[in-house]
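Sync notes, pocket subgroup
Present: LS, DG
LS reminded everyone that the earlier model was apo-only. Rerun requested with calcium ion included. Inputs:
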Amino acid sequence: MAVVEPSELLSLAIDLVRRAAVGISEQREAAVTSIETKSTPTDPVTAADRAAEQLVVAGLAAARPDDLVLGEEGGFRPVGTATTPTELHGSGVRWLLDPIDGTVNFVYGIPAYAVSLAAEVNGVVVAGVVRNVVTGEEWTALRGGGAWRDGNRLRGSAVTSPGRALVGTGFGYAPERRREQAEVLLRLLPEIRDIRRIGSAALDLCAAAEGRIDAYYERGLNPWDRAAGGLIAEEAGLLVTGLRGDEPGERMTLAAPPALHASLHDLLEPLHA
Ligand code: IPD
Ligand code: CA
C-alpha cells in the first residue's frame, strides 16, 4: 500500500474546497430557483449543492482514483476506479464531503454556509478543511498539527463554567427529532449564558475551535457534517465526544474545552436518557 501523506491530502482538499466555494458563489442566484427537498419538506437541496459535490468528486477522482468518498448528496461510492471495499484498502483513504453545510442559510442568503471536506486514512480523520463561502474564512487541521484559521493557531475558549458558556447547537429536519431537541433546550437554556443556532454544524465546530462560542453539541449529525470540523475542534484542544464515554457520532457530538466539558456533559447526559 502506498504511503499516504496527510499534508498532501490537506493541500488537495483545500484546493478543491476553494474551487467549490467559487462555484457556489457564482451559482447562488440560479441555484436558489431550483430547490428540492430531501429527508423532510424542510430539508433542502439545490443545484449548487449537487454541482459543488460533483466538482469535488471529479477533482478527487482525477487526483486519487482509488479513494472512496462519502458525500452528502451522493452517498458512499468510489471516486474513481475502485468498486469494492477490498479496493478501498488499496488506498485506505475515504473522503467525507459536505458540499454546502448550511443549505438553509444558502437559500436565504444568510452568510453562514460552508464547504467541508475531510480525509480519513484507515478510518481515522487526519486532515480537514472548512471554508465559509461568503466570508472566505478557512479553517484547517492536520492530526497532530494543530488547528488554524487563516494563519492563526486556534485554542478554543477559556470559559470553565456552564453558566458563562455560549453554547452552539443545531436541530435536525425530522419533526420528532426537533421535539426532543426543543425539550433538551428548555432544560439547558436556564443553566447557560445563551444558545447560538448558526445553521451549519461545520461552522459551529470551527467557531468552538476558535472560541467564538464556548462549546457546541448536537444530536443527529451525519459523518460529513462533523468530520472536518470535529478534527479542527480537537486540534484546537477541545474534547470532542459523545455521551457517557462514547465516541462522537449520530447520537451526540459534544465539543468543549477540557475545563468545561465534564460539567456540560453532566447537564446534557440526563436530558438524553
Ligand atoms: C445541517 C446543518 C445544521 C444542523 C443539521 C445539519 P445541511 O446540514 O449543519 O446546522 O443543525 O443537523 O443537517 O443540511 O445544511 O447540510
Ligand atoms: Ca450538512
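DG: The helical segments are 6-31, 47-63, 85-91, 103-108, 175-188, 201-210, 223-235, 258-268.
LS: The pocket of D-MYO-inositol-1-phosphate (ligand 1) is lined by residues 72, 98, 101-103, 170-172, 199-201, 218, 220-221, 225 (CB under 6 Å).
Action: DG to write up.
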